[in-house]
Structure formats: structure tokens, C-alpha cells
Specification:
The complex is a heterodimer of chains A (about 130) and B (about 525). Chain A is α+β, with helices and mostly antiparallel strands. Chain A has a domain of about 80 residues: Glutaredoxin (3-Layer(aba) Sandwich). Chain A is built from 5 helices and 4 strands; from the N terminus they run αβααβββαα. A 4-stranded mixed β-sheet of chain A has the order 2-1-3-4. In chain A, a hairpin with a 6-residue loop joins strand 3 and strand 4. Chain A starts with 5 loop residues before the first helix and ends in a 6-residue tail after the last helix. Chain B is an alpha/beta fold and about 525 residues long. Chain B folds into 4 domains: about 110 residues, 3-Layer(aba) Sandwich (Glutaredoxin); about 210 residues, 3-Layer(aba) Sandwich (Rossmann fold); about 80 residues, Roll (Ubiquitin-like (UB roll)), CATH 3.10.20; about 90 residues, de novo design (two linked rop proteins) (Up-down Bundle), CATH 1.20.1440.230. In chain B, the strands form 4 sheets. A 5-stranded mixed β-sheet of chain B has the order 9-10-8-7-11, sandwiched between helices. In chain B, strands 13-12-16-14-15 form a 5-stranded mixed β-sheet. In chain B, helix 6 runs parallel beside helix 10 and helix 10 packs across helix 13. Chain B is globular, with a radius of gyration of 24 Å. Classes of the chains: A alpha+beta (about 130), B alpha/beta (about 525). At the A-B interface, helix 1, strand 1, helix 3 and strand 2 of A face strand 1, helix 3, helix 5 and helix 6 of B.
Chain lengths: ~130, ~525
């Protein structure tokens, strides 16, 4: 396609930006997803998919999903942690697709922690911080 | 499932040769697909990461984990452990010697900590064969802005104010070169990209072309608009096949997107690019010799003036810029001259790419702000001397430069300071020598290079380099006398002062700098001869 103006260039850029989006964004919120065997068997991949989909739908810079290893709390899997820039991590346990969607909308995009889903501060530090 | 992960595999020449980077990439594709991650993870073959000593390199994003020396058989582990379960594969991480700690993130690694990447901004980050990725990261925005909002004079003024100087080694102000070409009368004008990288041990330009060809193409179009040229010529040595292939792909894609060709961005500006292949003659990096070679004549230099900016290719005003110089242009347009001028040192703003080679631990490609000291580059970024040996000297500027010893290690990197230290900036080769190397032997090597590469047009260079080489050989063989030393010094000065072009004028530099800094080594060899 021939690009003939800065607006058209911008349109092309938006169309292709998903391809490179995992490669940028330090300073963005990060959602760590426990992807140990127990996490995966209780549905972490679906949770991951939901989070990635919602974050990319919210536009560039809204956040990144990062898989992390088992944190040794199998009963609470799938476990995720939200790390907002400059803030302490917050862990959520027994997350499913619906809860993941709510957590992304409320906490990552809106800055409001959903207290009833949190897994407690003692769990949060167990994540393999990156 | 949405894309969540990018697997970046280095596709620079060094990684392709040091191991089997191409097979690593292919294995990632196959195994990811087989494990059902085809939609979640994307494999991208990128340009050089710079950490060539530790190749093949694989980087996983957004996790920001950096794996080294990855073999095709490691791929299954990375997919099963890291991409499936989020567990980092410790054994493939870089371990800083003496630290006894594995480092997974690039920003923790001393090799990357002090680097500032402008010319290399996309190397190791994007797929050089996909214009989409270049556009996604802001590519062609600079060209669009220039063509729709700026006059040619504003463009050359902007580059002038940034203080950018020629990165091929000469250090001539780029904005001024553009302005002279723009003002020179001529019914046609040309812009030439000098990709005839010839210094032994230098691979900066090759890596830029392999890793970010679109950046150079965009810059050439911007330069074309600024000076009033509609044709760009890339003069590239034929022994850079991967760079040529990626440039060729990039040019085809740029044409398909309307970034080259007629009426770019609807502005009425036409610009296109052709190749000229060089046969790998060192002298053809000199701009008048390069132009002669483009015209199909022998690659020999001409007298200056007139300068190419006045009378160049086929007699028309021609602006010749080096690859790395051009690679800086789009960022300067996007971020502004003041931003660029604020980096580096006042007289030499910006950054410089260096190819670290020789007896240094982290052989590779680095981009550092001007003003950084040689000591910081060699000991902090480069990790010091291999095998715990003692540092002897560093050669900057290739065969045109000189050896800087221990006492010059705190020299800041900029055009003037390096000249003051008896060497020169050059195009960016940096060869490190340890206590086992002999200064006379090194000098002989560079003289051998100069004598082979002398085009023969002028006598001081043609005959002089041969005679200097003979004397160096004589001294090395233990047959030299103090008279030979005096003759060598006298000849070096004469050749420097009377040669036609930069090759001859700078060929005695290795001799002069070693006679100054390492005279004892000559005298020791002569002393042995007497005894």
C-alpha cells in the first residue's frame, strides 16, 4: 500500500503495532502470571490469554503480561500479581477468565485494587520478581 | 489467543557464523507451533545485538531475558521452561566474571549499562526484513515531517544545529556538507551512502545495514530532499552479502509503501536508490576515489578542491555520507537538534559506534556517548583484557590511526582528543592488545595493509609504504640499526606530508605513534641485533 500522508502513516503504524508491542514499554504496569505446571493445569493459559487480549485492546502502553514460574501456593492457582510502576505488587488467587478481566479493568487500567480477590501481602512477595 | 511474547533471535553475520542462529530461529518456530504457542509467541530474526563474543543471542520480550550461546538443541528447553512455565533457564544466562551471579536483563549487564543507542536503536530489536516493524516503531515519521512541514534549508539547518559530524572518521560537520551541496549549482544532484567499510576489525556499518536498513534508506531520502537530489547511490562492498540482501529487500518494501519513488508523501518529491558494488578496495572509502569507482573508472582519489559537494558524481554536486552518520538522521529530526547536541561532548555531540576486537573479553559492537574514556570502554563495557593479561595498547582509527598506551587510557573519546593522543577517531574499529603483542609487529601489520591497499597514483604512498614496510621487517628480523630507525621516522613524516589522499597521509600514523609511545620496543630489537 502506498502511503501518501502522515495520517496514512499513522494508520499503518497502528495496524502493525501489535507485532512489536511486547518489545517496548518499561515503566508500564506488569501483570505476572504464575505459569507453573499447577498454574497451567488450573487454567493459567486462558487467564493469560484474557489479560493479553484486554491489555492490547486498551491500547499501547496500558501494560504487559509476563509469565513467571511456580510460587509454591498450588491451592491458590491460577495466581497472578499486578505490579503498577513504583508500587508494591498485589497478588490475586484463584483467578479465572472473568476475574482476570475485572482485575485488568479495575486495577491495571483504573488503578483500583479489587480487595475481595487479593491473596494477601505474604503471597505477593513469593512471585519471582522480574 | 493474543500475541504475548516475542522471541528475538540475532541474525547478524557474527551470530549466524558463531553458531547456528538460523537453525535456532527455525527450531523456535517449529517447537512453538508443535506445542500450540503459534499464536502466542512470535519469532523475530533481528540485526546484531552487539554482544558478538557470546552469540548466538536470544532475547525474550516482554520478559526482558537475555540468553547467550544458544544452540539449536537449547530451544526445546527455553520453550518448555521459559515460554510455557515462566521459569528462566539459568544455565543460558550471562555470568559476569568475578560477580558469580547470573544476569538475565540487559540493563544489569555492564556491557549494556553505559551504552546509549541512537544509530543502533533498532539493531537487535526489529526484523530488518519487515518494513512494518520499522514503521511500528516510528519509522518514516521523520521523512513525512520533513517533506510536509520543512523546507530543504530548514532540514540542513536542523542537522547543522545538532552538531552531527561525519562518522566515517573525518568528522566534517554533516549539516555544513548538506548546505554546501544544496547551494552548489547543478541541474542534478546526488546523495551517496558510503558503505565501503574497510578498516581491519571494523563492522559497525555492516551491522547497521544488516540490522536496520530502513533507517539508512529513510535518512538518504531526507538528505536527498535537503540537498536537492533525486537519486541516492549506496556504494557497498560486495563482500557484505547479507547487508546487500537486506538492503535490497528493504528498498523493495520501501518502494511498495511509497517511501521511495515518485511523489513521496504527496509532496511532489521524487527519490530512489541504486546500488554500486565495490570490490573491497580500502582507498574507495575516500570520497573522490569512491565517486571514480561509481563512474566505472579506477578507484583512485582526485585532488581536492573541487570537493564532491561542488563537482562530484558525473560532475554534479554530490553529498557523500557514511552509513552511521545517516543512521543518526531520523532520530535528530524526530527529537530535535537540541536533544542530540545535549548528548556527548560539546565539540563532538552524539554517540559513536565502536567495534571492539582483539584481546578484549567482550568482543562486540557498542555505541557510547562521545566524551566517555577509553578506560571505561575497555574495562567496564569491554570487561577488560582476556585471560587476566596486562593491557598494552589500543588501536583506534584502524590503519590510519595510532596506538594509544596505558598513559592515554583516560583520553575522552572525541575527534580532537584522539588526534591529540596521536591517533584518530576513524570509523570505529577498536583493537585491543595485551602484553604479549609487540608494537613493531603491529606496525608491520598495518604497513602491510597500507602497502597492499595503496592505489599507486602518487609516489610517496606507493613507494613509501613499501620502503617503510621493508625497514620494519628488517628491524623485526633483528637486522636493524639506529640509522634505520631514524630513516623510518623521516620517511613517515615525508609520506604524511606529501601524499595525495587520506590513505597515504595517514598510513605513517601507526609508525609515528609507536615510535612515540613504544620506542623502547624498536630499540630492544635493534639492541639484540648489535649483541
Amino acid at each position: 500500500m502506498q502511503i501518501k500522508s502522515l495520517e496514512e502513516l499513522k494508520a499503518v503504524r497502528e495496524k502493525v503495532s501489535a507485532k512489536v508491542s511486547p518489545r517496548r514499554g518499561s515503566g508500564e504496569p506488569r501483570v505476572l502470571v504464575g505459569m507453573g505446571t499447577c498454574g497451567i493445569s488450573s487454567g493459567a493459559r486462558e487467564v493469560m490469554g484474557e489479560i493479553v487480549g484486554r491489555l492490547s485492546g486498551a491500547g499501547e502502553g496500558s501494560g504487559k503480561a509476563v509469565p513467571v514460574g511456580c510460587i509454591g501456593m498450588c491451592g491458590l492457582e491460577p495466581l497472578i500479581a499486578v505490579v503498577m510502576p513504583g508500587e508494591e505488587p498485589v497478588a490475586y488467587g484463584n483467578v479465572d477468565k472473568e476475574k482476570a478481566a475485572q482485575i485488568v479493568d479495575s486495577h491495571v487500567l483504573g488503578g483500583k485494587i479489587i480487595d475481595e480477590y487479593t491473596a494477601g501481602a505474604d503471597i505477593a512477595w513469593r512471585f519471582q520478581w522480574r | 489467543m493474543a500475541l504475548r511474547c516475542n522471541v528475538l533471535v540475532c541474525g547478524g553475520s557474527a551470530c549466524l557464523m558463531s553458531g547456528d542462529a538460523a537453525k535456532v530461529a527455525r527450531n523456535f518456530e517449529l517447537i512453538l507451533k508443535a506445542k500450540g504457542f503459534g499464536d502466542e509467541a512470535q519469532v523475530v530474526t533481528t540485526g546484531c545485538f552487539g554482544f558478538c563474543e557470546q552469540g548466538p543471542i536470544v532475547k525474550i520480550e516482554p520478559d526482558n531475558v537475555f540468553y547467550i550461546k544458544v544452540s539449536p538443541s537449547d530451544v526445546k528447553t527455553i520453550v518448555e521452561e521459559h515460554i510455557t512455565k515462566g521459569r528462566i533457564v539459568e544455565r543460558l544466562l550471562y555470568e559476569e566474571p568475578g560477580l558469580r551471579r547470573k544476569l538475565g536483563k540487559t540493563e544489569d549487564m555492564p556491557f549494556y549499562k553505559k551504552q546509549v543507542r541512537i544509530a543502533l536503536r533498532h539493531c537487535g530489536l526489529i526484523n530488518p526484513e519487515d518494513i512494518g516493524e520499522y514503521i511500528a516503531l516510528g519509522g518514516y515519521e521523520a521523512l513525512g515531517r520533513v517533506l510536509t512541514n520543512m523546507t530543504p534549508q530548514q532540514v540542513s539547518d536542523e542537522i547543522g544545529r545538532s552538531g552531527l559530524r561525519g562518522r566515517g572518521g573525518g568528522g566534517f560537520p554533516t549539516g555544513l556538507k548538506w548546505e554546501i551541496t544544496r547551494q552548489s549549482p547543478g541541474e542534478k544532484k546526488y546523495i551517496i551512502c558510503n558503505a565501503d567499510e574497510g578498516d581491519p576489525g571494523a563492522f559497525m556499518d555492516r551491522s547497521i545495514l544488516e540490522g536496520d536498513p530502513q533507517g539508512v534508506i529513510e535518512a538518504m531520502a531526507i538528505a536527498g530532499y535537503a540537498v536537492g537530489a533525486q537519486t541516492g547511490i549506496i556504494y557497498i562492498r560486495a563482500e557484505y552479502p547479507l547487508a546487500i540482501k537486506r538492503l535490497d529487500t528493504a528498498i523493495t518494501q520501501a518502494r511498495a509503501h511509497g517511501m521511495l519513488g515518485k511523489d513521496i508523501f504527496g509532496s511532489g518529491f521524487d527519490f530512489d536508490i541504486v546500488f554500486h558494488y565495490g570490490a573491497g578496495a580500502f582507498v574507495c572509502g575516500e570520497e573522490t576515489a569512491l565517486i571514480n569507482s561509481c563512474e566505472g573508472k579506477r578507484g583512485e582519489p582526485d585532488y581536492k578542491p573541487p570537493y564532491p559537494a561542488q563537482t562530484g558524481y558525473k560532475g554534479f554536486p554530490t553529498c557523500v555520507n557514511n552509513v552511521e552518520t545517516l543512521a543518526n538522521i531520523p532520530e535528530i529530526i524526530l527529537k530535535g537538534a537540541e536533544w542530540f547536541a545535549g548528548i556527548g561532548s560539546p565539540k563532538s555531540p552524539g554517540t559513536k559506534v565502536f567495534a571492539l576486537a582483539g584481546k578484549i573479553r567482550n568482543v562486540g559492537l557498542v555505541e557510547v556517548p562521545m566524551g566517555i574514556t577509553l578506560r571505561e570502554i575497555i574495562y567496564e563495557i569491554g570487561g577488560g583484557i582476556k585471560g587476566g593479561k596486562k593491557f598494552k595498547a589500543v588501536q583506534t582509527g584502524g590503519p590510519s590511526g595510532g596506538l594509544i598506551g596505558e598513559d592515554g587510557l583516560d583520553t575522552p573519546i572525541d575527534y580532537e582528543s584522539l588526534l591529540g593522543a596521536g591517533s584518530m577517531m576513524g570509523s570505529g574499529g577498536m583493537i585491543v592488545m595485551d602484553e604479549d603483542d609487540n608494537a613493531v609487529d603491529i606496525t608491520k601489520f598495518y604497513l602491510e595493509f597500507a602497502l597492499a591497499e595503496s592505489c599507486g597514483r602518487c609516489t610517496p604512498c606507493r613507494i613509501g609504504t613499501k620502503r617503510m614496510h621493508e625497514i620494519a621487517e628488517k628491524i623485526l628480523a633483528g637486522e636493524g640499526s639506529m640509522d634505520d630507525l631514524e630513516l623510518l621516522e623521516q620517511m613517515a613524516e615525508m609520506i604524511r606530508d606529501s601524499s595525495l589522499c587520506g590513505l597515504g597521509q595517514s598510513a605513517p600514523n601507526p609508525v609515528l605513534s609507536t615510535l612515540r609511545g613504544f620506542r623502547k620496543e624498536y630499540e630492544k630489537l635493534i639492541g639484540k641485533a648489535k649483541a
